[in-house]
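call fold(seq) -> tokens
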Amino acid sequence: MDKKTNIKDIISMAGGLDYINPKDIPSIDLYMDQLTTFMEDQLGKNRRNDEDKVMTKTMINNYTKNNLLPSPNKKRYSKQHLILLIYIYYLKNMLSINDIQTLLEPLIDGYFDSNKDGKDISDIYAHLYEHLSQHYGDIIKDIVRTANKADAMYDPEKDSYLHDLSMISLLSVDIYAKKKYVEHLVDKLRQESEEDAKAKAKAQAQKAREQVAAKAAKAKQPQANAAAEGKKK
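ret:
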């Protein structure tokens, strides 16, 4: 395998990867079978093996049980559901269920059924999609640079195994470092969420105490008035 073939393989691999254009996401609600068919049609090229499934009914039901996906409305899934499933599809290969829940919970709470700060979940996905092509191109260039490093270490024809081992090792270190940083960001989100929850609970407890004190003061007021009248007499 020469250098040109190596780079050609990388570009070919990149061309086979699919990500869904916002314009291709149906605006009408879909039933489960329609939903899985849509995901299969749109992302089927990403499968490693032909027998693999992009998204199954069991998977989707489990996502709902684990609060990664809001329940469907009368067994029908909206455009917002589809967008969340696209996020889950890409995140599940790298993050745990708990991490995905931490990451997507603010998206669901703030943008799923509401328009926050002039944005909804469709706007957010469309904005991300606008930048995907450029970002993906940068990733492919980085993979090519890594391939060139592996070529400099071992001849891809004479030392094919050592060449591929070196490239896999270099790419794995890169993936590991990025994964650790992603986990750091998720942990930061989780900590901020827990701190917000504690602050809200503290504020609610203080409000409850103030309400109890106000009721107690109001209950004592007639007695105080009666005592004052008695002293006048």
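The longest helix spans residues 160-232.
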